[in-house]
Amino acid sequence: xxxxxxxxxxxxxxxxxxxxxxxxxxxxxxxxxxxxxxxxxxxxxxxxxxxxxxxxxxxxxxxxxxxxxxxxxxxxxxxxxxxxxxxxxxxxxxxxxxxxxxxxxxxxxxxxxxxxxxxxxxxxxxxxxxxxxxxxxxxxxxxxxxxxxxxxxxxxxxxxxxxxxxxxxxxxxxxxxxxxxxxxxxxxxxxxxxxxxxxxxxxxxxxxxxxxxxxxxxxxxxxxxxxxxxxxxxxxxxxxxxxxxxxxxxxxxxxxxxxxxxxxxxxxxxxxxxxxxxxxxxxxxxxxxxxxxxxxxxxxxxxxxxxxxxxxxxxxxxxxxxxxxxxxxxxxxxxxxxxxxxxxxxxxxxxxxxxxxxxxxxxxxxxxxxxxxxxxxxxxxxxxxxxxxxxxxxxxxxxxxxxxxxxxxxxxxxxxxxxxxxx
Length: 423
Fold this sequence. Notes:
Blueprint: H1 11-27, H2 31-38, E1 42-51, E2 57-66, E3 74-81, H3 86-102, E4 108-115, H4 123-137, E5 146-150, H5 156-170, H6 194-210, E6 218-222, H7 226-237, E7 241-246, E8 251-253, H8 260-270, H9 284-287, E9 294-297, E10 316-318, H10 327-334, E11 341-343, H11 345-348, H12 351-365, H13 371-396, H14 400-419
Parallel strand pairs: 3-4, 3-5, 6-7, 6-9, 9-10, 10-11
Antiparallel strand pairs: 1-2, 2-4, 7-8
Helix pairs in contact: 1-3, 1-14, 3-14, 4-5, 6-7, 6-12, 6-13, 12-13, 13-14
């Protein structure tokens, strides 16, 4: 039996495994080396019992997966989702490893979370879940072991609760245990906007490569949370017209362009897109295949499939979410390489972990940068990674996803070989 095959199951981990083996075949990695590169070093499952507001007790399931320690401590987000399982967490940790390695960050990948619906919890219940989850994780995490960050369903406040809980156990303030914190609690300027701004920057690089002027170009953003909304603002600031947006409650499309500031004000007031407009409402299933120059899936995994990949009408596919494109869709997109320019997820949404790295460094040194310096350094790291991916794709005639993954896998493989079996 293959290592880990009985533990890591589900469609999301199957995606990560297939992507890895596709690249491993291209790289000529022997079968005997593959399990160690793919399967995580450590997986933790914990119970998270809390007192609910109605006086009852509830027990939630929590997870943390640490993929490898060959390059440094592990790093990765923590998500709260009602459908979260160990296979999904493990896949996200694997992708984070390739992402960090591609960007030259001194981390292995990690991911964690709690199976719960954060939108159905009161603020007190959310705090109780967060503090108890971190309490259960304390034996397995640390500033030089595993550093958490926000993800789907979590935010700056949750990170502040994590940091405070860990610090109470240490008897001192340890800001560097998590990133994505509020600036007032040791966070860094620009972290909240980093992923969306990074996506927009890389879209700009792709447009330069394709000789596409941004003025008058159109974009559709699926997912209007933190990542999607910041991406929409940043793309609009570059001159693109945002013609479609959606979240889990509503979908809007207008070829003439949507009023992004009005959308932001509505979400700030109501928390969701629902109720913004009755005139521009659109079928969410059709949004991804409507005509646009730039398509940004920034919501969840597995939305671009073998069924709709052939119908995409975008010139640039900028993967803001983790794992939005299935292997079946990748096979379709390989045949459309001259039509659809893919910015793969481990490159496209790397801005968040890059600025998380900056935050970690600032916390360790207790020396903080202003937002302009953070943004300048972010662009430098993303430009290097983009150039590496384009060069590898051109040199080896690879799709962009395979080129990006190969760079990440090779860096982890090299470090693992020289260090030996322990990391």
